[in-house]
Amino acid sequence: xxxxxxxxxxxxxxxxxxxxxxxxxxxxxxxxxxxxxxxxxxxxxxxxxxxxxxxxxxxxxxxxxxxxxxxxxxxxxxxxxxxxxxxxxxxxxxxxxxxxxxxxxxxxxxxxxxxxxxxxxxxxxxxxxxxxxxxxxxxxxxxxxxxxxxxxxxxxxxxxxxxxxxxxxxxxxxxxxxxxxxxxxxxxxxxxxxxxxxxxxxxxxxxxxxxxxxxxxxxxxxxxxxxxxxxxxxxxxxxxxxxxxxxxxxxxxxxxxxxx
Length: 260
Prior knowledge:
The chain has two domains: 4-200, 2-enoyl-CoA Hydratase, Chain A, domain 1 (Alpha-Beta Complex); 204-250. Helices cover 48% and strands 17% of the residues. It has helices at residues 30-44, 68-71, 76-94, 111-117, 145-153, 155-164, 170-176, 188-200, 204-217, 222-237, 240-250; strands at 4-9, 14-19, 51-56, 61-63, 100-104, 107-109, 121-125, 129-131, 167-169, 181-183. It has a six-stranded mixed β-sheet, with helices on both faces. A four-stranded mixed β-sheet has the order 4-6-8-9. A hairpin with a 4-residue loop joins strand 1 (4-9) and strand 2 (14-19). Helix 1 packs parallel to helix 3 and helix 5 packs across helix 6. The two termini are 37 Å apart. Keywords: Lipid metabolism, Lyase. Its EC number is 4.2.1.17.
C-alpha cells in the first residue's frame, strides 16, 4: 500500500498529498517518513505545481506522530539511523516552493502536529486536537516544533504548549493562531482545496517569489528583508507573468499565465 498518495487536480496545478496509513492513524514509521520525503523531493522539482494540500486518509487523525510501536524494539543505533530519515520527511514539506496547506482533522500530535507546522497555512475542523507531548516521554519536538511553533504564535504561547505537552482543541488552536481557518467537522479538506485553488489562480511566478521572499526574510533584519523583497520584485516585474497580468487587466479577461 502506498503510505503517501499524490493526487493532481488538473488543470489547476493543485496537488493533494494524502497521508495514507489510516489503520495506524498515519503514525510516521521509517518507511512512511521515506515516502513523505520522496514525495516532497519529487514535487519540489515540479514546475507545473501551483499549490499543495496535505490531508489524511483517516477520519480520526491527521497524524499521531512517530510510530512508537516500531520504536518499541529500537536500539540507540536504530534511533540514530532513523533520525535523518525523519528530518528529510519534515523538510520535504517545509521546502516545497509553492504555498502548502495542512487540512487537519482529528489528532495531530507530536510529529503529526509538526507536519502541519511545516506547511504555510493550517486549516482545522472542529474535531482537531493538536499537541506536542514529547517532553512527557523524555524527548523534545524534533520535527521543527520548537522552531516553527514559536515563529507562528510567539515565544510565550509556544512555550506553554512545548513545556507542558498539553493538547489544545480546534477552537483554542484557532484562537492562539496555530490554525488559520476553523471549519465544521469534515470540511477541512474541502476548505483547504478551495484555498489552494484560489492561490493557484494567481501568477505562478508571483506566488513562488512571494513565498521565497517571506521565508528568506522571516528571520533577517528589516533592511536585509527588504533587500530580499526587492530581489523578488525584480524577478516578477520582468517576467512573462507580469506582462500577461497587465494585459489581462486592461483587456478585462482572465490571465493565461505563462509561468516564467
